[in-house]
């Protein structure tokens, strides 16, 4: 009854099914790994945001690379802004996906070290592509700023090319090592995304809360791939049984038709 399984069509179909099953299982395992990674990152973000603010120099120093445990930690710093050495970071978007700039202002601490402060987003226009855009001035005098600690940006981690020959006072990446060379000063590793003082008047738009990754979606994809893997052999059996039944019915009809033929005189 199942001799048809040795036909070329069914051999190819069986081989495809045998390839699909382990492939779908591996895809499900990969999605589960992605779920675990995203869950771990979300947990780190939650813990960092919930931690008490600390002075920035407790977590970073010149040449220090910000770790995943330190990222998003709320820190404070006391000093003054240095708008004369301020730059803007090109091709940055706000919450509405509008393209503009991030305003990066050196913040000179009371001990002389420099902290890079991303003061927020400003819109861009055609003229600002070749000239320095109009940037709202930072607060004057000695103040205390608060922000979320962020690691240095590189092309490898951000996917942004570090283009050269840009207009004056415009950069592509926020990198403390590069800024230390430009400023010829001891710059703390990483930078902070300012959260306080709150914007007033013409202050750049402050950066929003860090988004959490949708880990549940990866979990759903993993289950989906495993269900697909389980459905392949079930579907193969259903197809094989259906064809066997159709062949049996066709053979029975043929036999009935033969028996019904009148005998030759």
From TrEMBL:
Membrane topology: Multi-pass membrane protein
Domain of life assignment: Bacteria
Keyword Transmembrane helix: yes
Record bears the keyword Transmembrane: yes
Location (main, coarse): membrane
Protein localization: Cell membrane; Membrane
Key words, A-Z: Cell membrane, Membrane, Transmembrane, Transmembrane helix
InterPro entries recorded: Surf1/Shy1, Surf1/Surf4
UniProt similarity note: Belongs to the SURF1 family.
Protein name: SURF1-like protein
